[in-house]
Amino acid sequence: MKFLTAIMFEFTPKCNLGSSHPWCPHNADRWAGKDTTRSLDDSSILDLAVKFTEEHGFRGVFGWHYYNEPLFEAGRLFDLVRLIHRRVPSARFVLWSNGSLMRPYMAGPLKLFEQVIVSDYDKRGEELKAICPHVELVYPSPDARIDDHEEPWPGQSTRPCPRPFTEFCIDYHGYAHVCCNDWRGKSSPGNVLTDPLHEVVDRWQRMRDRIITSTVMGDMPVACRCCGVRDPLLQTWDENIASECITYSREVYDRLVGV
User: Does residue 143 have a pLDDT over 50?
Assistant: First the structure.
């Protein structure tokens, strides 16, 4: 996993803007037909963070957003970040929030995160900068990915996708996702709370290599064949790792495709 820039833990399933964005997957039955008896707790997240780092070579950043709002449980989040850092001193963290719950008393704990990104739906930019000077403000449209597809989109590109280098998402009930666009888990490599972690990582890596080398739809996982958001760019949570990922992807392509 050294060629991966971020691991995202959905440590809470809650979002205070869920009802305001009705087409966000937060409002869907994301775990239909799946086992939801287990969920991420602080102990399991700490254990996973240690194993990802010490056993699987992860060097990127840990994040806390998926289809949730991390600051909904701010106190728990800050304590968890401190806990992981004590156990894994090299650990680094990012926070992506909608910013609506960010308050002045959080100024100190927000320094725990080397990157803080806010989707500023409430247009609180100057107030947020006063609380967290290193915040990056973005202004996206409300998420509308609840309208996913079971079949490939008309005119869908067949280009390889580098998104699996950007993130490895673990939802609240432990299911791993190749990226945030596979929110139903159609192509999940497994569950980190029930399956041996090395098996989940191995399946994920084999899927990743397929995704970055496939040029025909049939070679890609079903979630990728139905994706309308295929991203040609690699989000640079860490520019050095991102550069290495690009080199690695070219090596994999040459090895598997022979071009």
Answer: yes
